[in-house]
Structure formats: C-alpha cells, structure tokens
What we know:
Layout: H1 2-41, H2 45-54, H3 58-68, H4 74-89, H5 96-128, H6 133-186
Helix pairs in contact: 1-2, 1-3, 1-5, 1-6, 2-3, 3-4, 3-6, 4-6, 5-6
Amino acid sequence: MYPIALCSVFALGIFLERLWTYIKVRREFRELAHQVEPLVTKDHREDAITVCHKSNSPLAQVFLAALRAAGRSREQIKAVVEETGRREAAPLQRFLGLLGTIATISPLLGLLGTVLGMIRAFNVIASQGMGTPATLGGGISEALITTAAGMTVAIPVILAHRYLSSKLDQLIIEMEEYSLRLVDLLGK
C-alpha cells in the first residue's frame, strides 16, 4: 500500500505542476504575441528582439529565431522556426512520461498486493488446514484492498495524463499558429 500511496502523491504533484506550467505558458504566449506582432508590423524589429529577450516563454526563442532570420525567404524563415519550435516544445513534455509510468505501475502494484495476500491466505490453509473464514479473511481482504487501491490511483492518473497531453497538444498548436503569423509578417 505504501508504494501505491507514494505513486498517488507523485502523480498529484506532477499534475498540479504541469497544469500550472501550461496555464502560465499559454498566458505568456498571448502576451508575447500581442507585444511582438505590432512591433514587427511597424518594422521595429530591434524592439521586438528586446521584448523577446525579456521573456522566458518558449515562444520567445522561436520568435527570436524568426527575427534573426528576417530578410530570408519565407520558406527559410519557416524552416528555422520549425526547428526551434521542436526544440522549445520538448521541455513542455517534462514529467508526462513519468505520469504515464505511474498510471501503468499502480495497478501492477495492486496486483502484487493481491498475489501477496493470496499467498498469505494459502499459507494459513497450509499451516492450519482449511481453517475458518476469519483466519482466511485477512489475506483475502489484503488482496482485494490492494487491487482496489491500485486501480483507484491508476484510473484518475490515466485521465490526468490524457488531459495534460491534450493541453500540451493545444499549446504546441498555439505556438505554431503564433509562429506562422510572425513568419508571414517577416516573409513578405
């Protein structure tokens, strides 16, 4: 039960950290795009570069790559932006693999508890004969409780993983849209 409880604590921590990060990054994307696009439209590229340097957003690095490639063809700017975007999107996936692993191992830990509980029940049978329901009940109860606990952790963690994965996909699409708008402004 302790490993299952530990998995649930880790999963909750990861979920909350990633959720907070994704909300913050989305806000940063919008703010940065609303600051940089008007500057590029007015041909104030140096000011746009300064704004990007002040931002910690992954989108700022993509914008910087696009602004540095200004003057090239649209296709060349787009290629630079796509490469930088892939690099900047990778850290946004942090801990999602661990969350998926927790979702996978939680029911397995519950199953391990089931096996251990059944072993205890069969040891009682081996040492005392058929025994009474009370003597067998402890092992069987342990088996059922750990199975239920493993599934109780795994089901919400799977849902959390799917939710965060969809949020990440939305963030990456949003980053691509903002980046392509800037490429269109620069690649004219």
